[in-house]
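so my prof wants the structure for this chain in the tokens format not the other one, which i didnt know existed until like an hour ago. anyway here's the sequence
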Amino acid sequence: MKLVDTHCHINFDSYDSDRAAVLHRAAEAGVDTVIIPAIDLETSRQIPVLCEAHSGLYAAVGIHPNSTADFDEPHLDQITALVAHKRVVSIGEIGLDYHWDKSPKAQQFRAFEAQLALAARLELPVIIHNREASADTLAILTTWAQSLPESLKERAGVLHSYSGDLAMAEKALTLGFYFGFTGPITYKNADETRRIAAALPLDRLLVETDGPFLTPIPYRGQRNEPSYIPLIIERMAGVRQIAPDALAAATTANAARLFQLH
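here's what i got, hopefully its the right format
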């Protein structure tokens, strides 16, 4: 059973002491592919280099909304240059975050819209971060999706660690988006998340750890890692009433289609 963790910050320093062991455990658990999203220019530069050192690792480059306070147009030139790396498969993670007050909304909008335009121009899907900003996120994505190139119309990107409601998901489906589900789908109070995961089309689902964050049950409170993806698969398969192997095969195929993994 081959699995893809479509969102793990395995470049973070919390993995520095045992990164090789973490990747080994991932492989033993069937997770042979991991996509690592950047959060700023420094990680956008670092992650492709890390991917060169390990098979099965792919990069997304971009500036997270909480890192956009000093965003300016020259940052786009640097991101554009990094896209040439053969392991870069996406622009991300980008979006809006109204939970933390780390960047003014106007600046978040500016960075988000500029990076979306870049992704469309480069014909790369996007990894979207949305925290407590669903209405504005959907409005911006709706406008952006109207002028996508043909190559992106059915694979615009992924709404990472999906936290919106079902109505937003249904709209995002029409825009060509996929939906990433993380450890919280295993939490006791996550009935709404599970309801949405059960309602969405199977061919639009992805599984993510968002490691080192959002660790699933029974390891909640500890550092997350890609080897825990089967726990998310098992819980999602249960709510959809299908076999875990069937869900695993579908999410792996979905990841390969969205990010054009080879």
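also thought this was worth mentioning. The two ends are 17 Å apart (CA to CA).
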